[in-house]
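request received
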Amino acid sequence: MTEPDIQPDKQPRVYIFDTTLRDGEQSPGCSMTVPEKLRMAAKLVELGVDIMEAGFPIASEGDFEAVRRVSEEFPEVRVAALSRATTKDIERAAAALEKAKRPRIHTFIATSDIHLQYKLKKTREQVLEDAVRAVELARKYVEDVEFSAEDATRTEMGYLEAISEAVVRAGAGTVNLPDTVGYSVPEDYAERIGRIARLLGERAIVSVHCHDDLGLAVANSLAAVKAGARQIECTMNGIGERAGNCSLEEVVMVMKTRRDYYPYETGIVTEQLYPASQLLSGIITFGPQPNKAIVGANAFAHEAGIHQDGYLKNKSTYEIIDPRSVGVPEGKLILGKHSGRHALKERVKELGYAELTPEQVDRVYERFTSAADNKKGFTNEEITEFIEAAIEKAAEKVS
Ligand code: KIV
Ligand code: ZN
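response:
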């Protein structure tokens, strides 16, 4: 048994529970082998996540192995194993975590009437009993038990309060209220979370787990933190079931950038965000879309001439985050048809042609603008060709 190092606290510390290797991994195009999960886990440790959910051991041998190896090889981080609220699942999760230094069993059961009626075919009383029994059993193996009320945002509030109270009495230290189907909106989610946080007080940490079906996973998670949640479940690049989970990089950077609204600490080393995103993209079958906040290829690219001009005069005109603070080497200006002379001149200098005369720069600019209409953007090689042509032209004139 290990001493729990996470306690309900009065500090504005928000714990980051990363589920890239579980909820993220179970979505199309994202499955990972055990060695791939180990590589990603090493990066998540560097990133500073507090809890890492490594798999769902009853689901497959691979998931069992992943939880076993990740929890053995990364003793410094708390490792969670998912289980339904059944004896077989919990025993399997406990076996996978046997050698873990900081094990967490994360057990869940659905609590909404829709799920009870159509999926579980159980009454509310039966589900409450299953939940309590599951938490009690999990506590026989580990001290750190998290309970999730699946589909919490479509669960009748009085019942959600009753089951939250019951699992905490049974020994759960964290109560997670997932927006499983991404149905919630910030005001509604905050209201629910606030009620459960007030009910449980210091006895347990309230956790949030949001899916992005309406594009609100990050906003919902932040509203919940303001209402008293102290754990956010999220994934790198926002991968996860259907439209994905709350994106780790976004939720963390909102708290860092807008401390005036979200005065909470996380343990995330933000300089590792971009490297972690890149590593994940290389392991799974797709990367973030180019315009994805924080880690997308265009997240720090400025193309419009007015923007480029302002940015080159002072970065703060168009950049609210220093790219280096999230591990992006430097802001990139995309040279395309909206780009202005100032940006082109800067690129010419960066490409090693600082000595170009104003006439030569003009000639490069002319070639560039006449070609730009039919192009989405230019590579450095293409710009070099324009420069070389301009230099040649100037040489012809002289000779
Ligand atoms: O979305 C969900 O409800 C889940 C639970 C298993 C936590 O992923
Ligand atoms: Zn989920």
